Amino acid sequence: MFKIFRGTAALALLLGYLSMPACADDKPAISPGPGEDRALDTLQKDFLQWRFGMFLHFNLATFADVDWATGYEDPAIFKPARLNCGQWADAAKAAGMKYGVLTVKHTEGYALWDSAVTTHDVTAFKNFRDGKGDLVGEFVEAFRARGLKVGLYYCFPGDYSKGKLAAGQADLHGLPPEAASDYAGCIKRQLTELLTRYGPLDLLWIDQYANPYTAAQWPEFRALVKSLQPACLLLANNSHDFRETDIYSYEFPWSHQLPAETNTAPSEVCDTIQPAQRWFWDKNARLENLQSADEITHRLRLCNARHANYLLNVPPDRDGLISGPQLDRLREVGRLLGKE
Fold first, then answer.
1. Residue pair 4/33 in contact by the 8 Å Cβ criterion
2. Is residue 281 part of a domain?
3. Is the C or the N end of the chain the one with fewer CB within 10 Å?
4. Are the C-beta atoms of residues 56 and 316 closer than 8 Å to each other?
5. What CATH number did the domain enclosing 153 receive?
6. Residues 34-67, buried b or exposed e (16+ Cβ, 10 A)?
7. Domain presence at residue 2
8. Where are the alpha helices (DSSP H) in the chain?
9. CA 118 to centroid of chain Cα atoms
10. Contacts for 169 with CB less than 8 Å, ≥ 6 apart
11. Alpha-carbon distance 295 to 339, whole Å?
């Protein structure tokens, strides 16, 4: 665990990261502080009361009809004409969910907020709010207004574009082009933006934390998060080690694992309502090939009985709404849970 900085020390650290150049090499040394383990224990117990959450995969990949976009897709295709984060939150709440997690930066590297680190962000989506939108802000505001907890997903670098790049295209490894000279520095600046612009966050969800490019800097990323928002839980996807994560994580479609019956560690199982490990909206999905409501509610109960929340992915469509068979199935889940 890491020491919690307050007062002038926190301000100084924050200003340092905000002014840090994209290629900075900063390595904060933060040691455990008295009482922090007890504070984390309280946060973990509170987390387990959330029980059921909505995972929202929504970014340029939604419009490119892929799960792992490369970052070279035309940003003009991002044009959700009816986007309504309030509708997402209402659908989540009606299903009995207590929190939401939005993919604010996935493998295409586009940030769903106006990032000072790059132009590879929401301002490039000229067909969305005339390039002046802030999807992170809309999401956070809508979910908070309905009493739901808020989580943000951020994907670390990886090899997502193999076999997909045209001649002359450099592999961006899931980050904006400006990150090429210093992945860790750019990630720190973007995490700082997320942790200082949107008020208290309940959960920061990191994918690919153990990647070959920035794994050695993971303690530095943890230190940064804890210094800026000590009450924000940090989840490292698929980690079962409290030296790396605040919450044990199980990516069920990939690992087909759930916590053991004897598990007592605070945990989360993420899953998707769609078939074939599909995370972004599947335009070809039909009600009959989605997970059944019985399967979903059974897995939810099983997770909760094993000290785990169940984070179910229900992706918005290209209009920016949760719709079609995905919404129908989610409503069915809500009806089943409402009868308990």
1. yes
2. yes
3. C
4. yes
5. 3.20.20.80
6. eeeeeebeebbeebeebbbbbbbbbbbbbbbebb
7. no
8. 7-18, 36-47, 60-64, 85-94, 135-145, 183-197, 218-228, 252-255, 293-305, 324-338
9. 19
10. 70, 72
11. 16
Taking each helix axis as running N to C, give the angle between helix 135-145 and helix 85-94, from 0 to 180 degrees, rounded to the nearest 10.
Answer: 40
Q: How confident is the model at residue 17 (pLDDT cuts 50, 70, 90)?
A: very low
Question: What SS3 state is found at 153?
Answer: strand
Coil, helix or strand for 199?
A: coil
If you count DSSP H runs as helices and E runs as strands, how many of each does the chain have, helices first?
Answer: 10, 8
Q: Is 175 exposed, middle or buried (0-12, 13-18, 19+ CB in 10 A)?
A: buried
What does DSSP say about strands 267-272 and 308-313: parallel, antiparallel, or unpaired? parallel
| Helix, coil or strand: residue 142 | helix
For residues 39 and 158, what is the distance between their CA atoms, to the nearest angstrom?
33
Of 28-32, 123-127, 196-200, the one with minimum mean pLDDT is: 28-32
Contact 121, 73 (CB under 8 A): no
Asked whether the beta carbons of 22 and 181 are under 8 A apart, the reply is yes
DSSP reduced 3-state for 332: helix
Q: Please state, in angstroms and rounded to a whole number, the distance separating the CA atoms of residues 87 and 76.
A: 24
Write out pLDDT tens, residues 29-42.
Answer: 333 333 456 699 99
Is 57 domain-assigned?
A: yes
In a domain, 1, yes or no: no
Contact between residue 133 and residue 125 where contact means Cβ atoms under 8 Å apart: yes
Q: How far apart are CA 104 and CA 56, in angstroms?
A: 9
Domain total in the chain: 1
pTM attached to this predicted model: 0.89
Q: Which domain holds residue 13?
A: 7-338
Lookup: tokens for 215: 């794994």
Number of Cβ within a 10 Å radius of residue 295: 13
CA distance 142 to 88: 8
